[in-house]
Amino acid sequence: MLLFKLNFLAMMLQSEVSFDLRSMWASMGFAAKAVVVLLAIMSAWSIGVMIDRYIAFSQARKQSREFAPAVAGCLREGKIEEAISVAEQNKRSHLAKVVEAGLQEFRAHSISHELAGEQIESSRRACERAEAIVNAELKRGLSGLATIGATAPFVGLFGTTVGIINAFKGMSSEKTAGLSAVAGGISEALVTTAFGLFVAVPAVWAYNWFTNKVEAFGIEMTNSSSELIDYFIKQQKGKK
């Protein structure tokens, strides 16, 4: 038994096997390389979405902080036109888009001299439509992040399965259990498994973070539209 174990160990160590990235890529089969390329594309796309959403959310937050006090001052003085102008200057602000829609609708119905109730209701509907549009814009690309986060580990698992199959093929063809016989398959399995997780984990983290941001922006837009409608109601009562 001891002699058998020594012979087995000698076969495992009889050839030096390199596991650096270049050697592992060279030893991969077509299927494993296709999996790695697919995961690389998924990773690049998810990174692009992360950068795009981070820039969009940062600009929305920055402009909203500048817009809120400016438009509040205009409305306190009853300057609707000036408030619309301030909103138009902050196109990347999620609050500005909602408030501008309500103000534009209120101004349009003021010109047509409609009843106060209809005027305010039209402004409310305009704010709701703007909220829906802005929410859709903020969520752009996030469904793709969720898909990548959910599927990348399984794509890597497919590569792992292919690698294990190739490892057994190597053992079968060389009629030996030496490390050199299974090195190619092991490298495929290791690389695709690790790469799948490397792609999936950041995508899931980013999706959860951006989703929380979208929910916070949605609450802010709802509050802003409610405050705007309350302002219109007070304006109408003041005129009476």
Helix content: over 70%
Number of domains: 1
Residue fraction in strands: under 5%
Structural class: mainly alpha
Describe the structure.
- The longest helix has 61 residues, at 179-239.
- Mean pLDDT is 81; it is low at 1-17.
- 87% of the residues lie in helices and 0% in strands.
- With 240 residues, the protein is mainly alpha-helical.
- The protein has one domain (27-36, 76-239).
Per-chain topology:
Elements: H1 2-12, H2 21-27, H3 30-76, H4 80-88, H5 94-111, H6 116-138, H7 142-174, H8 179-239
How is this structure best summarized?
It contains eight helices and no strands. It has 240 residues and is mainly α.
Record keyword descriptors for this entry.
single chain, 240 residues, mainly alpha, 0% strand, rod-shaped, disordered N terminus
